[in-house]
Every structure is written in structure tokens, then in C-alpha cells.
Amino acid sequence: MQADPQNSSAEVLRNRILSFTFNQTKVIANQTLLCIGTTMGFRIVRIEDCKITSARDKLDGQHFEGGFSCVSSMFSTQLICIVGSPENTHQTPNILYFWDEYHSQLKAEIRFRSTVKNVLMRRDKIVIVLEKIVNHIQTYIYLLNTLKPIASISTIENDYGVGSISTDPEVFVLGTLDTTKGHVRIENFYTNEIKRGHMHDNNIVIMEMNSSGTLAASASELGTVIRVFDTRTLNVMYELRRGTSAARITSIAFSPEGSFLIATSNKSTVHIWNLNLVNNDGYTGMVTRFLPTYFQYTRSYFKLNIQPENRWSFSDLVPPGPVACFTSESVFCVAHLDGNLYTCRINADTATIEKSSSFIDMDEVYRIESK
């Protein structure tokens, strides 16, 4: 939809996606939500039926001009964490806000001296990842019920907000960057064990865990290889090749029983690996010791190309590509920048898109009369 050039007294705004992420504990479809930050606020979508459960980005309702660069929901509760985008003049990027959806108001806030890049939530704790190092600290852990800080971690600067936690209530494992480029730090807060080690030569842009925190997967800025490692030993279990050309890995997810791993990228691709068919050393056999490095990595079992239905111009604030999560061992969902949620199924010899549903109208236009 194009703006009317004769209506020069009206400012035209389009609602655009700034961020999106899935919240998940264990895989329960009706409790899995897609949390979306937009240029006009935020919205929450239940992925079971693609139902919008909250839309605080409507001009004729409660909205926040400038929007939010980070939105995270406390599972199926009414508590939502939000971080303002650089364009938001009221909710600034260095403050973590707690939104009470039931009462439709901001409930609390935590202020920092650096931009908040990521928020990781459990039922009892919240982890805040900052972009810059402040007093040698870059990651903070708070009790969720009191918002009291209980721990802090020193890392290198974290432009991508890298961090991951176990969601199983019986264990608390936190993965962060370490103080050296390409190194990871894994801490088990129940056993007080800390592991540090080298995982990539380049800067790490993403790290995700399975629900129990026993396995983690990471990728670097190059984006050609994903390493899956045991968090208790840091031994690399699998080395998975996405491709030979550089790409930004935008999400990684383990299936509930650990049979599959999926990764999305800014190339609008979804790669799926069947980990049951990969040798524990990540290679396809002893003969690979005589082959070039490229042949030593396990290639994806399936690959999907999900190109957006429409394209538009956007700023650098927009996420670089789709994100995915599993809803069962063989079914996963992909949220894309065109505002569609794709439900996909892994079959015996392929992966297919079963349906798509819209969670935001990319052609929606707001007209604000100039004062």
C-alpha cells in the first residue's frame, strides 16, 4: 500500500519487525509463544493456532512508538520483558522493563550502563546479557520474584547478545562467551562447576542448549560450521556443515528427544540434521582423515528454502533472518521476516512445509495527522 502523495499533512508509518524469539520450557505447543518486537511496540503469538494473545503495537490502542529490540515472555504467564529500540525515546535500550499484561502497565525495571542485548528467562531466574563490559561485568543473573542480583559474569563484549540457559527446572546451566574471542564459558549453578574452552576461531554469534543443558551448539560469524558439544566436558560431539559460503546463523534448536537439530540463516534457509546418523566424532568414517577439511564435516540431512512472500526496505535494527523452534520431535515452526509462521514436518526422507499463518500484516499503514 502506497502513501497518498497529495495528503502531505499526514505522516505514514508502517509496523515492522525489530526482533522475534520463541519462549519455551519443555515442548508444550500451547505454552510456546512467539515474542515479537515491532517498530510500534510488541505482540505475543501462541504458535499452536497462531493466535495473537497480546498486541501492544496498534495505533488505535496501547502502543510504543520506536518499538522494542528485545521481547521475552515468562512462558504462558502475563509477565513480559521488553527492551526499547534506539528509536524509542521513552523506553531506552539500557533498561530492562517488566510489563504486566494483566494490568496493562509497566511493573518494574532494572537499569544498566550498557545496552541490553538479550534476556533469558526461567521460572525462578532471569539472565541479562549486555553489549558492553561495565566494571568487567557483562552478564547478570537475578532472582525473578525479587529482582535481586545473585551472580555476575565477566566476558568479552557481546554485540550479538550470545547466551543460553537450560530450561529444565531440575538443573540450571548457563552458557556465555568467555573472556577470549571464540571461547565459551559453561556454568552449572547446581554443581558449581565451570568449564571454559575454545570452540571457534572467529567471534561466536549464537549458542543454544537443549532443555537439560547437557548439550550446546554454537556458530561463529562465518556461519559455515555448527559445533555441538557436551557442556560437562566441552568435548565436541558433532561438527555440522551448513555450507561453504558465509552466512549468519539466526537460530539453532534441538528436538525434544535430541534426534534432530535445526539451524536457520539470513539466507532464508533451514538446515536439519539427524544426529542419530552422525558419528560421535562428527565425521563419516576414518577415511576422512585423508580428505580436505570440507569433506570431514557432516552435511545437513534436509534443507528447506523459505523465501519471504514479500520484501521491503528496513533498517539495520531488523533481525537478519528467520528463527525456529520444535513443537514435537518431528514438527517445528519457523517465524520469518514476512510476518508468516511456517509449520514444518520432518518425514522419513524429507522435510515439508505443512501450513503458514500470518502473525503481522506487513502492509498495515498508520497515518498520523501532522500537528
TrEMBL record:
WD repeat residue intervals: 249-276
Record bears the keyword Transcription regulation: no
SMART domains: WD40 (SM00320)
Any one GO cellular component localisation term in the record: cytoplasm
Entries under InterPro entries matching the protein: PROPPIN, WD40/YVTN_repeat-like_dom_sf, WD40_repeat_dom_sf, WD40_rpt
Source taxon at top rank: Eukaryota
Pfam families according to UniProt: PROPPIN
Keyword annotations from UniProtKB, A to Z: Repeat, WD repeat
SUPFAM superfamilies referenced in this protein's UniProt entry, alphabetically: WD40 repeat-like
Protein family membership: Belongs to the WD repeat PROPPIN family.
This protein's name: Uncharacterized protein
Organism, scientific name: Stentor coeruleus
